[in-house]
Amino acid sequence: MKEQGQRKKGKGYIRAAMLAVLTLVLAKTVIGVGENAVETALVGYGDVKISESTVGVIVRKEAVIKAPISGSIIYAAKENQRIPVGTKLLEMKKETINEELTGKHDEINQRLQALQSADSSRAVPAEIERSIKEGLENIAFLLNEGNLAAAYSQKERLTREINISLAASTTGLEREELLRQKEELDNIIEGGIKAEFAPFSGVPVYTMDGYEELLYPENLEEVVPSKVAPAKAKKVDLTGELEAGQPVMKVVANHEWYAVCSLSEGFAEGLGKGSVVYLEVSEEQTYNVRAVVRNKVEQEEGPVVFFEAKDYFPGLYEARNVEMTVVKGKYSGLVVPLSAITEKDGEYLVEVLDADKTITKKVLLKGHDGISAVVEQTGSSPAIKLYDKVVLGKERED
User: What is the pTM of this model?
Assistant: First the structure.
């Protein structure tokens, strides 16, 4: 019995030893798998945009149009429609200018024109009387014949001759009185009706925010974005009485825009005078406008960049503080995670998982946004292609 117990005890030791060895082998196997396991990503096709969102202050070439006289507006150009330079923007008149006054002015002008015609006419009064008599006879004949059109034409000619006849009988004193009255009315009307015209081609806008005469291209580089408080644009009432000098509207040049933006140090790096970017502004839809860097300065809040755009930028006639995206570059092509790319001896490399091995492929790096990169084939073999599995984040020896 004792020997049997010893044999059983020996077998237990053997089983325990074998289990320990098996556990060690399995552990090493698991560790080996863990060490060899790699994280991959598929190569896709898409876009990578290098951009930063910010709030830009819009500076425009614009002119405030003020009421030239106190009174009411009798004409105003249509809002938000492009107009050429010299177009009439508005016309105003004083309340003292009424139809009776303008009617009298027209009557005097007609009488003076008749006098001038009489002076240039060589016909003597007797000849004019004879002409009038003949004219009346012709009208009577034409009416009798039923030729109404010819009768009307004869009547118009006769009216002119009668005016000349009356003017010819006007004395010198009467002529002088007419001229005096005309001069008096001219002075009243000239000061009572005034118009303003567009100083440059652009778009009339009926709203203003008070920054029009504070922010302008000439003082662009003095603008500090953080100090330009948002202001609500107010619409001018064009139907009531206006005082002389009161702002009525503004005309905005539609091909001269500026934006002043604060940007991060990293993003502003590489942006210099003349650098080309795209400004994206989303209102009812997204507008993308080409712009160039006019200057870059360091302010208390960091880098501030001044952009100039010549393209038509719809929807920004009123807005001042605008959320926008500054796009430094946009690249299209094969997209891989940036962590899959290493650099060695000035060349960019990726490792592609192929079955149970990896293959190193050279690529050309077009651009990246810090997360994803757009790459191209180098022409050398093996070349990267769509749906390759690239290895992520694996440290490689240089």
Answer: 0.60
